[in-house]
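Hello,

Following up on my earlier ticket. Below are the two sequence lines again, exactly as submitted.
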Amino acid sequence: MKATGSLDLRVAGLSTTGTSHLRLGMPCQDACGWFAAQDMIAVAVADGAGCAPQSQLGSAIAVRASIASLLCARVAGEDLTDCNLALHLRGALQAARMEVERQASATSVQANYLACTLLIAVGVTGGTIGAAQIGDGAVIIENKFGDILALTSPTTGEHLNETTFITSAGAIQSAQIRVQKDATHFAVLTDGLQMISLRMPTAVPHHQFFNPLFRLLSSVSEEKTQAAIEALLTEKRVTDRTDDDLTLVVASLNT
Amino acid sequence: MNTLATPTLEEIELADNPDPRCACVLLLDTSGSTAGPSIDAINKGLNQLKAELQEDPLAGKRVEFAVIGFGSEVTVHQEFATVDMFSPPTLVAAGPTPMGAAVCRSLDLIEQRKLEYRNAGVSYYRPWVFFISDGGPTDDTTLAEQRVREAEANKKIAFFAIGVDGADMSQLSKFSARPPLKLDGLRFSGLFSWLSASLQNVASSRPDEQVALPAAGWAKV
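Thanks for your patience. The regenerated structure is below:
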């Protein structure tokens, strides 16, 4: 689901396996996916719970199901702007949770074996952007004034390594769902990048992390941006600071 | 495309944040009965722990140790410090086993450290108490048991109790829903290796339950 339909809308990104996961022989538990149509981009990103035995499957299913839900809405000609966008985002969260639970039931395991966070962002030409988030990570936007802001931010408890998962009780009811106008770019990231892209614990985006990335996507091809993001996530100055799986997807609405 | 304005990777700046911390209290029985091979093995284990964690740069920045010994007195031998500043004390065995007072002291130390983290804007993982004893208490442990059970139930700490030869395992099990483990003989080296490996991993994982103690290697099944 990576075909781009328009030169005006761009998206690039990927997930990389954390150095700690490589050391322990664990798979990458992050997943990401998106689709782009002529007038919109939908991105989904998920991070499997570290101790959940099948969380890499959970995160893959959550991404696929939430993107499929939004694609169906788009194909059916649904209006994905303003308050309708919030409804469809909630619908995408529900679709993801249902698919994860269905998989668990089909293989006779507890649903929390596939526990993961989930972040969804939908950008529409004209600059409306909506985001839905369960757990940590963040959706960051740049608006037409050049401000870089967190549309959604990490949900954590007292402790850094505790958050909500899609399989947690009340996860959808307590999910962050936000819609904003006048966005030109957005980025979606999992918690592995929080410490190096946001000022914690307030989760204020670091301007000079996101701004060059957004300008890069607007300047060069998606393939070149993809390669640059991969190079960034595997740089020593990044892996020295975080050994977790990393996911970063950036998108340009070119408004 | 305006290639003159094309940004480079070098322009991407990483945010500067204090390293998140994982506080670990080593709560060690230094009563008279531990004299001999047991206290020697613990002293050796503390040095082994420091050496192993120093090899992991990320754990080196994140893990903080405090050491409390309990015997003649409850003594904080080491306030919380990262691995590079951690000076493993040489523990001496003497006196009774004031287990209740020692456990309470460990919880107080953790609450104090968390307050310091919050005041400094430092993020932190769920702290650990790693409790090793070879006997039964010689003081009242009722309050300590209640405080640990409440803290665990509210996911405030992760409390691991290890019994050495001669330990009152039924007493140790009163502290935590997590069953205590029995050290096999003097396999402290395996125990401290497990501890250093687990502490390296705790910052990388996001457990609903804390890391499970392995049965193999140093514990009696």
